[in-house]
Design goal:
homodimer; alpha/beta; putative 2-phosphosulfolactate phosphatase; four-stranded parallel sheet; four-stranded mixed sheet; 34% helix
């Protein structure tokens, strides 16, 4: 390895502590179905800030304090919450300029685990290019951290990781990470027909009755927004250019 | 899922406890570079039985008791051992009919972790077809368990898993496991030029100075032997047809 920045992909929260990247790094959290796609959608539609919380107790406490709360477990909205974590839940005029508390099965836990990174960003197909451009301009080591499904590898987070890793490698980043190489190969298998490729994933099938076709098409559409959400203390905010 | 047997792939020892397979199942342990390839080579060349031990202390104690000991850590032979875990270490006439104690960085620990399965088998490219035929004839659920590299996903174990999973799915097995689907896609990317595909893997590069070209070519050659090693109590033995 020379001085070029590195890219590594982590397939599960249970593998994050074994990552090879040392020193200063940026972590991109990925939970394509659905947390990180919905976070991008929310910011794209004017939400001001999102507070990710891991536990249900904490989410319910925030609700009691008067916050607007988005909360799901196993894909379904929790009873005390205002909305779940569907993309379409966040696309509503009354959330413009507002703060949303957000808790999901896999995504928000992953965001909170990633706090060892110097900077934590949110990645999804819808903001792929803007995210990649920011990472390239920054030139720091990157860890792409898949939220997975209950700790197990999933296709949709992996294929996105491959898309991002491929752009970074084409801009001088390096890797010694087999997960990144595999993810890039899977992206190349998938990308000409991303929707049908991901339709076979176990998690898509798990969520089929919960994710509308409209939301799924939004999810697999590349670069529909230029937002790059980043963690700032306890909150996700829009990175300002 | 109907009553057909299932196949699942586990990419790391740290993910094994999260596997989806329930009830009775057979686990295939995979550590292509190099433990499970070397175990197949050893049985193919007449070794009678192999005792896998996880710890160095245990291996050294077995050496003191007079056993022939194969032992490596991080790819290099340990000083008290008779041999390391290269394929070529096991291809020698004086081991015919003998017992070998075996301890490696990833492979033997994985074998010992797999003891929750009803049956534990050893898989590598060199015994792929025989192993698949046995699993098909048995018709039980299968978990393909990659030894990985210090808990991290690796390409060579994954591509083998895909090769095996693809055969099983073509014989009526089913899967709801994204790891299996990804492994099959990677096998299809790799298989027309397996040697060069795996030459890019991080672990192959890590071991380049330790794995001879001859051993590597043996490793990526399909179906050179019909041995199916299986765990029987504390020992690996040849499954008798």
């Amino acid at each position: 390895m020379n001085g070029n920045p590195t890219v590594e992909v982590c397939f599960s929260p249970k593998l994050y502590s074994y990552k090879l990247t040392k020193g200063s790094f940026t972590t991109v959290v990925v939970d394509i179905l659905r947390a990180t796609t919905s976070i991008c959608a929310a910011f794209d539609h004017g939400v001001k800030e999102i507070i990710p919380v891991s536990g249900l107790d904490e989410a319910e406490e925030m609700k009691r304090k008067g916050y607007f709360v988005a909360c799901e477990r196993n894909g379904e909205i929790i009873d005390f919450a205002d909305i779940g974590n569907s993309v379409s839940d966040f696309i509503r005029d009354d959330l413009k300029g507002q703060t949303v508390v957000f808790s999901t099965t896999n995504g928000t836990k992953t965001i909170n685990m990633a706090r060892d990174a110097e900077e934590v960003l949110i990645g999804s197909f819808v903001n792929l290019q803007s995210l990649a451009e920011y990472l390239i301009s920054k030139g720091e080591n990157v860890v792409i951290f898949c939220a997975a499904w209950k700790n197990l590898f999933n296709l949709e987070d992996t294929v996105f990781s491959g898309a991002l890793a491929e752009i970074l490698l084409s801009h001088g980043f390096q890797t010694v990470c087999d997960s990144a190489l595999a993810a890039i190969d899977l992206w190349n298998v998938a990308h000409s027909d991303l929707k049908n490729y991901l339709a076979k994933s176990s998690h898509r099938n798990r969520l089929k009755h919960l994710v509308s076709d409209e939301d799924f098409i939004y999810t697999v559409t590349l670069n529909s927004t230029s937002v790059v959400p980043k963690l700032n203390g306890e909150k996700l905010e829009l990175r300002i250019y």
